[in-house]
Structures are given as structure tokens and as C-alpha cells.
């Protein structure tokens, strides 16, 4: 079976899509009509997949978007699908007709080039796109002429992947595919080659990127290609002449080369596809089906050579359709010898003769094309002269207005063709020199492709014109495009005439290409033009329905009695048909009986079908009636038997079910009883447990409330006692001072009188004897009192030891009671007598606490008594000293013997007095003994009250030297020798957490009590302090700032966390002086380290230590709260702990010192950053010109001429932004508080805004609108940077500069313009506005500022307005405002980097971890 499907329709009616669907059907469907079953067990075969893959390839390289169709075929395609004897596809062949070459270099409005170019531009990978130098499609001349680059609903990138997959399926390797895409990219670059020159000589620039890229991709020499694009060679018999081409001719040559390469590539693809699809064994081919998808009839505003060829092909196909439908139909009527009158139909043979006759349009076009001086106008003149015969008037005419156009009357409608370009498109020639150059290219693929395409084209021409080849006489001429198309079309018609043709008419519903849109007039015109209406007219006038005698009898035999068709009677088929027709068709005109067939008018078969259906309905009803009776009776008998059986079974089941229900009811009653009992018991237990918990909660709440009242009462009494003591002491001091003044005055008077009496008494020797007697009495009294004091002291010591032992016994009892109380809490559900025992134990504990407080009060009273005795002893010493002073003066008047005797007595008294003083030491030592800071230490490490009184809480630690912290016993290296000069960054491997290898030394069984091990380690504070200062500050390696990989908080804050852990243990164990020494030395070292850096070198160290200092301050706050709760807990439970007053003073001092350190680091950092930024602000913002098109040159000025060699500013805007980025990145990487980050950036932007504004106001040569554009662009970059870094509010610091640039850009011609300036620039003072307008440099195309404008501006300036200033206050480089951020809750981490070798610190951290794990959790912590 040789079949052919032909799709005919207008352009855009759906021919290509329909052909694709029918090919997909052929590849998947079975041949059920002939009973052949295709083998589908393995799915589609490779050949079938390759046939389906040809559609995406042909559509990508041969289809394009037009005004009427988004996927219009710009070539004719005939595919022949070959089948074997099992209806399996074994091969295929493709033949193409007239590829529209001109679309490559020109596309009308709203149309596109071939799809493959857009797919390549959008779907190629980035690397290949870079190698092929592909850019956006809108940058290529061959693609951007229509302004359309995309199709709605189509993804060109996805289509490119489908095209690649299809090329691989047909056997084209990936390397060859990219060679194809390389040629396509070269064609796009050829289109971008610009041709210049004069009207008589075209030229090409050597530096054109498109020229270089195109020649490189094609593998040809750039010089030769450039030469033959602008020149042509004329060969004569004796010489070769090279002549210049005009620019238009050079463009034509350029486009013809591109079209030739693309057409050759298309032919090569068809050849490759045919080689891949063709069946290697032709004997296997049993049948074939040909699918012809050819371009539809086209009619545009401007129709050229391509539309002429397309419409010519449609004329030939329409003629074939007429012959197939109309002529063959009438021939069948004649063959059957029925009564029939012939019907005329429209024949388009005359139109075809106008086109393809010996003197037709194509012949005249070939004749004019072969003439050296042939033109499009000459071609038109020949047409007008040749078709003057009136018989051609209906099919050819001259255009009324355009002499270069002619009209052809096609079967569809009259089409006007513009002859412009007909000659060149028909020739479609490429210069021989360029052909030779392409065939000798360095690209093997290009050479092979051209040779293969040329061989395929020659073979097609030879097969298309075997008869015409024998008639040619003379020299062979190069075939034109029109003649080639004509011969291929004649070959196609021959193929159609030899096969069984099926025509498929595709109707386009509307011109807008919208869904569900139906234009009735347009559809009617298509039906009329395609001959469908003519076919319907002939069918209505004749006999459209025809049946063979056998088929008719087999279909309608039931309409008559069985005696006419009983097989046993051997019926006559013709007689049976006549009987049926005579009985049911009463009008003889409704049918005709031929030799082999019966012909019916329209509608007669429907009537016969109706009669046949009614007859079958009657027979069916009769059969149904009897069958239903039989079925119903049998069903009744079966149901009756079934019912009796079901009744027996049902009664049995009901009895069994009743028995089961009785059993289930009894079981349910028992389960309910048990379940209800269980529920009630659970409810009772829950209520009982709830009541117990409620009682416990109420008792606990009452106890806590009672304890809170007691604590508040105790605190109030304490505050009252302190306030009353303070007021009494203040009143006592005042009264004492007044009494002292009065006593002094009185004593001075009495002393004067006594002096007079003493002078008189001193003259006698008896007086000396009395004095000596008094001194002896006084010595005796002092000796007695000293002995008495010594005895009292011994008694106090004994009492103190007794009280201490008693306190220790009480503490042991309390600990035992505490353990017992915990055991009682565990057995809380025991009977209530345990609660009474717990209350008694609690009462006993309260009594012990009261006894302990009373004993402590007694100790305080004893301390006061000892201090009073010390005061009395001191007063006695003063009296003795006073007597010593008076004795020499009294002895001046006595004789020498008495004086000597008295001196000896005095010496003896002095000796006795000194001996008594030695035996009666000061009581300060005992005081300190009672105020010992740690119960485990009795050495001198306790903190002295004199030391605390000697320090000032407001002392400035920034001026403190480390040497002032100790008495000179600390050996340490000078700070100036150890300051780092540059930041040392740590490698990622160095920041890994350290693994503890000393597990054996830290074994809990070996170290015993970890608290004692920590205390022992802290006693040697000097090595530990040196290790911390050296390892965590001096030789510290800082983790580098990186926003892509931000370091963790442990890696940033580990120095202060380690210091915080050490200090916390010192405070917990009472080493307050050592902790203060460590913290002050660490702070001083950090400050010295930060102060050693300058300018931009301060960014990393200052940001790092500023963040760490705040972290340490927050850690101190957190530790203070924890230790406060711990001390309060210890005081409640009678445990000795650090004195809270001393600890509170130390913590307050450290807080103040850390805040001062933060401020100092911040001030130094901001000062250095401002120094660096002050050098960058003006060159980067004011002088830098980064906006192209508005560059201002100062070469006209004197200094500009002198300094023209170095006109570039020292810093650019990029330098400034990089500097700001570095600051921001460092602060974010080191977790600086967001509030501090905002402070820093705001301060720096304030410096930039003030400095640049003052500079702009005072520089006259920068006050122009172009300079303002440059400055505004720089400000915009700064604003964008601020918004990107979440500091948009900081841009308010640039408002003065921003409004100054706006003022310079605004118009200043009228007074209204000045009002606008003041409204817009409301931030500027009148003096600033006046200065900017006075300094404004008028451009050459601007009018000068008039005096009226200057007077109007000057009138707004007021000398009495203090706020009206010219320059803004300069931002200080040394001082900066710093608001301390609020501390946050911190938990110290035990992280230590791997590179640090701190043995004591590591051991201390490990011991702290063990102690924390062993420390029991406090159940009653507050």
C-alpha cells in the first residue's frame, strides 16, 4: 500500500502540528484494519525514536515566528515512512523544498529568525557561550530587526535541550553538535560586521570584534575574507580584473555568504538525518506512507520571491486536488453507466501556465537573472510585455501604482508581488573567491559540511530532472533557485500521482492566534479558496453515498422476508437488493443502480438505517419477552428453595446469637463492676495526692511569706541601726569638735596661768621631788592596768576559742540536721508525725542560728571594748610625752645634780613604759583574725581594711602603672618591650578546641577534693598571672574577620572567658587582692596593646578587645549575681564565706575600671579612624569623579595647568567604601554590640559630612552643576552602602552636603527659582546658601546669575541670627561620644584553642569542671 497524506491550508492553520501528531500515531499505533499486529513488547524501536526526533530538529532549523503563526514552516517537508510486512517502521526519508534563505538576514516587524538562533543564545551553557562569544539576542543584527525575541508560552532554553537530545538520537555526536552551534554563532557575528566607506568603495575596519570572531569561528583568514567582502574579481579571456564593491553590494555579499552557509548546513542536516533513518535493506520495505507538510498559502503586505514560490507550490497542489476529487468522481459515474450530467468546476491550469510555461514568470526570471545587467525593473518590464494577451488578464495584471509590482490571480485570491530582490534571490550566488576560501578553511567540519551539502544538492537536481537533462544543448548553465524549485515540485507531483492520496485541510479560525476564537468570514473564505465548497456542491448534485451489492445486501437483508435471503435457497444478490429498494425507496430518483455499485442521494442511507433499526427493535422485543418469562420463572423457583433454606439457617443463627448475647451481658456486668471500682480508687488516690501537694504548697508559701517578713524586718532593723548610728556619730563628731574648740580655748587660758605658776614653782627643788613622786605613782598605775588588760585579753581569747568550738559543733549539728531534713523530704508520704519532727528540727535550727548571731554580737562588743582600751593607752602615751616635754624646761633652774637624778628617773620610767607597751600589743590583729576571708586560710592573704580605705573607687585605671599594684616583689617584663607591632592571625587548624591529655593527673581519686586543689593552685598566683598575661594577651593569635565564615563566639571571647573563670574562683575562695591585681594588670596590658596601633591598623585589635572588654564586664555582672546568691545561701546555712562588703567594693571598682577601659579603647580607636578618614573624605567624595559623562577638567585654571600631570585624587570612592566595609566586617565578625556599631558608623559619617561640606563651601572652583552631579553620585553610593548595612539613619549626617549638591543643580534664573531653592534646601543656613550661589561657576551654556538674584539671597542673611553660620563645627579627631551598651547575661565557656600551651590554666579549667560536676544542687537556693 502506497499512501500519501497532504496537508493544505493557509499559513498558521496547523499543518505542522497535525503532521507531527500523525507521525507520532504511525510510530505507536497498530494496523488493526489488516489484522497485522506490531511488536510493542520493547516499546518504540530506535528507528521510530529517530523519526520522532526529526520534528524538533527540522522545526528548530527550518521554522520561525511570523505574523500569522508562532511556528511557521519556512520550507516544504516531505517525509516517507517505510514499513515492513508486520507494519513496523523500518526507515524513513526526508525531502525538503525551498528553504526561505532571506529570513536569515531580514525579518519583518513582529517576526523572528529561525528558532535555533534564539535557543542557542538562551540555552547554551556559560562556558560554551563564553567560548562562542554569544551575548543577548538583542545585540545581534540578524535577530533584533523585528524587535521580537520571545514567543509567549515557549521556553527557548528548554527547546534547546530538546534539540540537542534529538540530534543525538539521529546519530550526531556531541562534538559535531557543537561544531554546528559554532557555525551558527559565526553567522550571528557575520551579521554584526559593519560595512562603511564611500558610495563607490566599501571598507571594513580591522578592529571590529564581530569580524575577528566570525573568521576565528569559521577557521578562515581574516584578510582574505575582508578583501572579498569589499571587492569582486571579473575574469576575462586574457586577464583578471579586481573591482571595488559599493557598501550596498558588500552588504549583499556578506548576507549571501551567511545564507549560503546556513542553507548548506540545513541540507547537510537533511542528508545526515536521511543516512541515519534510511533502511539499510531495501527488500524489507513493504509499504510506505508519505506525509507532505508544505508551507501554506501566504499573503502579506509585502510579498517577495519566497511568497511567490510558496503560492506556486500551493497552486500545483490545488490542481492535483481538483484532479483527484472532481475528475475522478465523474469518471466513476461514467464507468458505472448511470444517468449523470457533467458539472463544471474551477480549474487553475491557466494560472500555472502563467507561472511555469516556456515564457512564464519563472522562465523570464531565469532569463533576466543570467543577463549581466539584469535588473528587477527589467524583469517587470518583460512580464508586462509578455502577458498583454487578454486571456491572461484574469491571472496576471500590472499594479496600478507601483511599476515594480505585479499581480497574480491565484486560486485563493489575487496577490501583489514586489519585484525588488527577485533577481538576487533567484541567483543566490556567492563569489567564487569566497567559496574557494570556505572550502579551504581550517575547520574540517565546515569543509566536510559544504562538500556533503553540495553533493546532496547535485544528486537532488539530477533525480528531479532526468528527462530535461537529455534535452540540454550547449554549455551547462548554473541552475537558478527558481528552476531548482520548479523541477523539485514537478518531481513531487509525479510522486503524488503514483500513490493513494489523502488530503487534510487545516482551517485557521482567526487571525489573532487566540484560543476559542472563530471568524466565520475568514473560515468561509478558506473553504471557498481550498475548493471544499465546490466539493460539497458536486456531492449534493450527485450521489455521494455508494455501496457494493454484497455490502448492501449484508447490511439490510433483515428488512425483507427470509425467503429472499435464506442461504439454503441460494438467493440472488441483485434480486435481494431490488426487493429492498422497491419496498423502502419509493422515489426512483433517489438512487441509481450501476454495474457493481448502488448510488444513493444524500439522506437515503440514513432512512434505510432507520428502517433497519426499527426492524431489529421488533425482533429484539419478541426475543426479550420470551426470555424474560423463562428467566423470571426459573428465578422464582430458585428463590423459593433458597428462602426455605435461609429460614432454617437463620433460626439456628438467631439461637446461637441469643446465647452469645446472654454470655456477653454477664461478662459486661462483671467488667463494669471491676472497672468502676478501679476508676473510683484512682480518683480517690489522685484527690489524696492533690490534697497532700496542696497542703505542702500552702505550708511552703506560708513559710516563705513568714521568712520574707522576718528578712524584711531584720533588714529594716539593720537599716535603722545604721542610720541612727550615722546620725548619732555625726552629732557626736559635731559636738566633739565644738567641745574641743572650747576646751582648747579654756586650756590655753589655763595653760598660760599654769605656765606662770610653774615658772614660779620651778625655782625650788621641792617641786622636782613632787614631780618625780607623781611619775612613780603613774608608772605603778600603768603597770597595774597593763597587767589587768593582759588578764582580760587571755580571758577573751579563751572565750573566743570556746565560742568557735561551739559554732563548729553547731555547724556539724546543722549539717546532720540538713541531711536528715533531706531524707525526711524524700519520705514525704510517710505518716504526719514526721512533719512534727521536721518542724522541731527547723525550730532547733532557728534557735542555733539565733545563738550564733548572739555570739557574733558578743564578739563585736568585745572588739569594741578592745578598741576602747587601745584608745585609752594611746591617750596615756600622749600625756607621758607631754610630761617629757615639760620636764627639761622645769629643770633649767635647778642644779645639775638634781637634774641628772631626774633624768635617770625619767629613763627608768621610759624603760618601764616601753616594757608595758611591749606586753600590751594593739588589738588590730585580733580584729583581722575574726574577719578572715576564707575558713581554709590563716595566712596574710586576707584583704586589709586599710588597703580598701587607701583606694578610691573613682580612681582612673588608665593612668595606673602595673608596678603600683604591688610592693615591688612581682618580677615582670616591661610592657613596652612586649607590645605587639602587628596583629597575628590564627590558622583554622590552630583554633580547634584543645584536647586534654592529662587525664591521669586529673583523676578524681588522685586529686581528692577539687576545691582544695583549686585553692592550692591559686595560692601560687604569680605564675598563673604571668601565664594568663603572656598567653592570652601578649602572644594571642586573633581569629581573622570573615563575613563568609563568621567565627564562633567561643573563638572570639575565649581570653576573657578564661580570665573570668580564674577570677570567679579567686572571688569564691577569698583571693580578692590577687583577683584585683590580675584584672588591673590585664586591663592595663590590653590598653597598652591597643594604644600601640595607629590609623587603619587599629581596626582589628581595637574592635576585638572592645568586644572582649564588654564581654568581660557582662561576665562580672553575671558572676556577681551568682556569688550574691551563693553567699546569701551560705550565710543562711551558717557557713563562713567571703565578706560581702569587701567583695561588693571590689566588684564596683572592677566595673568602673572595665567601663573606663572600654571608653579608652573606643576613644583611641575612633581617634585613629578619624585621622585616616579625614585624609580620605575630601578626595573620595569631593574630588573623585566616578560618574562618566560629567567629567570636569580644571586645566583652564592656573593651578590646574601646573598640576595637570597629577589630577587624580589621592583616594577614590571605592577606597572609602572598602575602608568602611573593612570596619563593618571586623565589628560583625567580632560580635561588637549593634548599638556600638551604629555609634561608630554614625560618628564616621558625621566626620565625612561635616568635612566635605565645609570644603565644598570654601572651594570656588568646585561649585558647578557637573561637580554637583559627581558629588551627588558619590553620596548616593554612600547611602546605598548604609542601607545595605542596616544603618540607614546614619545618612542624616550627610544632609548638609546632599542639599548643597541639590542647590548647585537647581535653576537660579528667577526669584521663583530662589524660593524653590530655599524650600528644597531647608537644612542650609541663609549664609551657606549665599556663599554657594556667590561661588557658583556658570557653564558656557548658562546665563550668569543676575545682581537681583544676589540681592535677594543677601536679604535673607541676618547678622543677629546666631544660628546663621557659614561653616559647620568641625568634628573633633580626639574626642568622641560613647554610650556604654547594657551588659548581658554571659555563661563562661571552657574553650581553649589548640595552639595555646597554658598548663596551669588548663589544669585550673579542668579542676573547675570537676568541681562543678561534684557540687550538689541546692534544694533551697534563693
Q: Could you describe the 3D structure shown?
A:
The chain has 45 helices and 17 strands. Residues 30-38, 467-476, 887-895, 913-978, 997-1001, 1195-1206 and 1417-1422 have low confidence and may be disordered. Helices cover 62% and strands 6% of the residues. The protein is mainly alpha-helical and 1422 residues long. Strand 6 (196-197) and strand 7 (202-203) form a beta hairpin. The strands form 6 sheets. The protein has a 5-stranded mixed beta sheet with strand order 5-4-10-1-14, sandwiched between helices. A 3-stranded antiparallel beta sheet has the order 11-12-13. It has a 3-stranded antiparallel beta sheet with strand order 15-17-16. The protein is elongated, with a radius of gyration of 59 Å. Helix 24 (765-826) runs parallel beside helix 26 and helix 35 (1099-1132) runs antiparallel to helix 36 (1140-1183).
